[in-house]
């Protein structure tokens, strides 16, 4: 489904003398694949390049070197041919939802953009119910919902277009632990029900292990370990072992 091959990404930074330009290398030759219907977790500390990689896969930025293809096609071409088939849920749900929109308008936004407005009221209610929210919320505004409710609204919006690929960029990290567990269960159910392919980006190893089929450890711009979630205990890389040791004992479902 997704193939990332030899991807490098750097940014110009200003420093030293008379505005001397240096390069900040964020990604250094990234290689991995995500198969259709698979959930791949990308884990790394802040500044490791996780969100940069997600922006490249979403087509929001371009790599300096290397290629990213979806079903064998360059990202931009695939997105153009498959509108609404790759969506994203971000960490900050408060800025992800227009505060002037009602919940109905938030969820309906991508459907309206794609001119899929037939039975819109009914579709919005069904989407809210699918993520465990009441239809009574349709006329409320984002500030009237809890964090967990609003992130579910963002998930409802993300699945409104029946996407093939869902990118979750730190989508649960701003939530309370108890709410995180509920959202993880929801994501598992939705993946099975809608047969989506997930890229789950996080810094919480336990969450990644519980949701994902395979785990990629990103450290200083390099993927230093690729391993299936049921073999995490056998990770060889020092960084991966350090993360594992920091959360043991933990349970993997």
UniProtKB/TrEMBL annotation:
GO terms for molecular function: ATP binding. The keyword Iron-sulfur does not apply. Residues 2-245 form the ABC transporter domain. SMART domains: AAA. InterPro entries: AAA+_ATPase (IPR003593), ABC_transp_ATP-bind (IPR050319), ABC_transporter-like_ATP-bd (IPR003439), ABC_transporter-like_CS (IPR017871). The keyword ATP-binding applies. Keywords: ATP-binding, Nucleotide-binding, Transport. PANTHER family: TRANSPORT ATP-BINDING PROTEIN. This is Dipeptide/oligopeptide/nickel ABC transporter ATP-binding protein. Pfam families: ABC_tran. CDD domains: ABC_NikE_OppD_transporters. It comes from the Bacteria.
